Amino acid sequence: MICETTRRSCGVLIVVAAAAVAMLAALSCGVGPANAGGGVNGNAGRQQRQLKAGSGGGSSGGCSNLNLYEGSWVYDQAYPPYDSSSCPFIAKEFDCLKFGRPDRRYLQYRWQPGGGCNLPRFEGEKFLRRMEGKKMMFVGDSLSMNQYESLLCMLHAAVSNSNITRQSQPYLSTATFQDYGVSIMLFTSHYLVDIEEQEIGRVLKLDSISDATSRLWRQMDFLVFNTWAWWYRTGPQKGGTEWGKPGLRDCSHETDPVLPPEASNLAVGGAVSLALQAQQDAIKSIHHPILFLNITGLSHLRKDGHPSSHSGLARLDCTHWCIAGVPDAWNQLLYTTILDQPSTPAPFF
Q: Is 262 within the bounds of a domain?
């Protein structure tokens, strides 16, 4: 979710539902508790080596709400959009090539919406000029970090000679593109709301966000909220059932996206589907304008995009995403949505 603030209240919220095991939840930026909502219909099929994903909501330059998230992963030899070995922002968890991933094909899929909709090419300098003097903060967990670092890599590739300064504090990382006065920030907050230590243990205060956190958020021009993986517990592993491969134990050795034999065999289901529906219902009750970046279905197809054993961690990782990779598509959709907003009057610029 992205929220543009006016220092007093929110203008536009963009809710992002993300990435197979993660859902980015909505938070109202007015005074009051978080609101969760959202929805997805993630179908997939095979047609001329294109991978189909289901519909969603949202807005983008020249594309209808439906077409933006209903489309195909298309193999494109011009991809990836940058060389990850030249990006100084990638954490070891996501640096798959550095840690020995032998295949490259996963880097060369781009998201192509249907219905004749063409996403604009990500132009980092154009993004920075549009954002001049503004601050964007990603708030959430390590999946927020995934998207944050992807965006920094995409921007760095466009303005590699620009003066970029970095600051790191507990729970807060900042990269500032000094030539443009643009700060991109990451604030670690797994649940978004307050946690208190009590006699019974750690207690989530679902209706409470600390004054210090609130003041920090209100200094931002854009807030990108993410929470899901820390709330969602599935119990025993389901393996590859949701990828149409029941015998699959994990994402190891997966080098291609999901290619089901029938167009409607794969869907985001179970608890994830119910939670997404709850999110969608809650969004309808929020009075602020909302744009929904519905990336769950399209990400769900990319079983090939996870670090697996190719990261700096001593464990198998089928939750996060390689950089370069799938998070670049999230940021291209974010970029497209931002460009589609009128310069005047606000909500965005």
A: yes
